[in-house]
Automatic annotation (TrEMBL):
The keyword Transmembrane applies. PROSITE patterns: MFS. SUPFAM superfamilies: MFS general substrate transporter. It holds the Pfam family MFS_1. InterPro entries: MFS, MFS-Transporter, MFS_dom, MFS_trans_sf. Keywords: Membrane, Transmembrane, Transmembrane helix. This is MFS transporter. The chain crosses the membrane at residues 15-41, 53-71, 83-114, 172-191, 223-245, 257-277, 289-310, 316-336, 348-370, 382-401. Residues 14-408 form the Major facilitator superfamily (MFS) profile domain. The lineage of its organism: Bacteria, Pseudomonadati, Pseudomonadota, Betaproteobacteria, Burkholderiales.
């Protein structure tokens, strides 16, 4: 390997690191986001209710609640390369289990294993990028890397229904094994930690006191509350959009998958564009602004989706889905950048793990809860209305918390 300079963050090698981190995220997201693309087919073949469809997503997202904090702490001490490599192998094993699962409960168990492996990818990939990029390049780098998630989802929305049509949903899971292993092998072969002139010392062993002190910081409270509302909304849209389009507008599942593809592609563009904006906002002191704007526009977009007439032009539907994709999925890029920029240098992994653990709680609870709301109300309007109310309440809470922190700072 070429010898890197004393501060290797100035080396062109960082762009190769960014490329493989993005491919890694896309490969992992091909699986996790692909579950939504398969939801309609699984519902039909296994005779599932909307609530059970929600539990499929819950099964794949439950494990990270128990592992993300541990993984984040480990990332501050050990090699991202080894941790992520092990995680991708675990994902591959879970995919094999899903491909041969005889029924709903066995499929949920396999999806749980997939979630265990995936818990290494998000904090590990984000930390690897934050190690190699600094200052005004952090946002764009993090945005490009985070764009891998919706782009992987877009690839899944385009490819997996085609595979299902040829050989069934079991083949879709089994064929995804090659994607996961290829992405993991590429990251393992290429990634190396940067050489830093001022590498931070290892922090003390994680304690409850240390974690509580971090969570009480204003930047962390912004991260926690906004992340829960936005990630819950994101997963609600991804899981139920195809079913909503089928029941409300009469779109077949294969046509709805193209709009799911569109929302993922626009989400990828949004993660990059909003992260570039966050770099500009960072110069003026508020990297969080793009996240707040994403919450507001997502709220308006969902309200518009509820009010869209059944006989509305397809152009209106496509345009609305594109806007929702840009903001309702694009928010994650500047959100992760805000964490990496705000956390202490020796605790970036822990901060990412803690924030993503809270997000996972929302991811686990939201799909089945929305499924139950739909089954009770017999309408997706109630689902989208619930998400709008959640975002509005979060925006109000963040405003109140901001004023409280200003009052406390003025009194010191």
């Amino acid at each position: 390997m070429t010898t890197l300079p004393h501060d290797s963050r100035t080396s062109p090698y960082r762009w190769l690191i960014l490329a493989v981190a993005t491919v890694l995220q896309a490969g992992a997201a091909f699986v996790t986001q692909g579950i939504a693309a398969l939801a309609g087919y699984l519902q039909k073949d296994l005779h599932l209710s909307a609530t059970q469809v929600g539990f499929l997503v819950t099964a794949s997202t439950l494990a990270p609640i128990f592992t993300l904090l541990f993984v984040g702490d480990l990332l501050d001490r050990k090699s991202e390369r080894a941790i992520i490599g092990a995680g991708m192998l675990i994902m591959a094993l879970g995919l094999v289990g899903a491909g041969v699962a005889p029924g709903f409960l066995a499929l949920c168990a396999a999806l749980f294993v997939i979630g265990m492996g995936y818990s290494t990818v998000q904090p590990g990939g984000s930390r690897s990028v934050s190690q190699w990029f600094k200052g005004h390049q952090l946002g764009i780098a993090m945005g490009v890397r985070q764009a891998g998630l919706p782009l992987g989802g877009a690839a899944a929305a385009a490819v997996l229904p085609f595979v299902v049509g040829l050989q069934g949903w079991r083949a879709a899971f089994l064929s995804s094994v090659a994607v996961v292993l290829a992405a993991g092998a590429l990251f393992w072969a290429i990634y190396r930690p940067p050489t830093l002139p001022d590498r931070p010392a290892k922090r003390p062993v994680l304690t409850v006191f240390f974690l509580v002190r971090m969570v009480r910081q204003r930047w962390m409270q912004r991260v926690v509350w906004s992340g829960m509302a936005l990630v819950g909304t994101q997963y609600g849209i991804v899981v139920f959009l195809m079913l909503f389009l089928r029941d409300r507008f009469g779109l077949p599942l294969h046509e709805g998958s193209w709009l799911l593809l569109l929302i993922q592609l626009c989400g990828g563009v949004g993660r990059i564009a909003l992260s570039v904006w966050s770099d500009r906002c960072g110069r003026t002191g508020d990297r969080f602004l793009p996240v707040s704007v994403s919450m507001l526009v997502t709220c308006i977009g969902l309200a518009a989706l509820v009010g869209l007439p059944v006989d509305a032009s397809r152009a209106w539907l496509v345009g609305l889905v594109a806007v929702l994709g840009f903001f309702a999925m694009g928010w994650y890029g500047p959100w992760v950048t805000y964490i990496a920029d705000s956390a202490p240098a020796d605790s970036v992994g822990l901060a990412l793990g803690a924030a993503m653990t809270v997000n996972q709680i929302a991811i686990v609870l939201t799909p089945p809860a929305l499924g139950m709301i739909h089954d009770a109300a017999r309408s997706y309007d109630a689902v989208w209305g619930t998400l709008v109310g959640w975002i509005v309440a979060t925006l109000l809470l963040l405003r109140v918390l901001g004023r409280m922190h200003q009052t406390q700072a003025a009194s010191v």
